[in-house]
């Protein structure tokens, strides 16, 4: 996780916790897991927006292709999702390659996705929420 995103995560979690401070007693934790989870969701969305705005504008086009998929996902299924992406016609908004297999390798190098030992592809939470990718289990999402 980028240092700026890491700091933002704890800042947002603290803000969420402080907004509920009246209902907490002095013996309770400062941050609950749900505070961190909610902050992670917001931080993830901000991180994708930052990456798309500053360095990788083509990530916006991938969002619609990945929305709703569930990770871990088979490499071939993710490659097919990338294959169906409708890319911007503007050269400055296109990825370094339009080949889905090469693009998958590029996403691996950037750390946006990671390869598991069983060959499936996973996405770290710092990116997963921003791309609206699903995963079963984990901490219950805050309202």
What does this structure look like?
With about 140 residues, this protein is mainly alpha-helical. The chain has one domain (about 5-130). It has helices at about 5-20, 35-55, 60-65, 75-85, 100-110, 125-130, and strands at about 115, 120. Helix 1 packs across helix 2 (about 35-55) and helix 4 packs across helix 5 (about 100-110). The longest helix has 22 residues, at about 35-55.
Draw up the topology in text:
Blueprint: H1 3-19, H2 33-54, H3 59-66, H4 75-83, H5 100-110, E1 114-115, E2 121-122, H6 125-128
Antiparallel strand pairs: 1-2
The strand line-up of the biggest sheet is: 1-2
Give the helix proportion (percent range).
40-55%
Uncertain segments: none
**What is the overall shape?**
globular
Taken together, the total number of domains comes to 1
Q: Largest sheet, if any?
A: 2 strands, antiparallel
Instruction: State the assembly state of the protein chains.
Output: single chain
Structural class, by secondary structure, is: mainly alpha
Observed structural traits:
mainly alpha; single chain; 143 residues; 6 helices; two-stranded antiparallel sheet
What is the structure about, briefly put?
The protein starts with a helix and ends in a 15-residue tail after the last helix. Helices cover 50% and strands 3% of the residues. The chain has 143 residues and is mainly α.
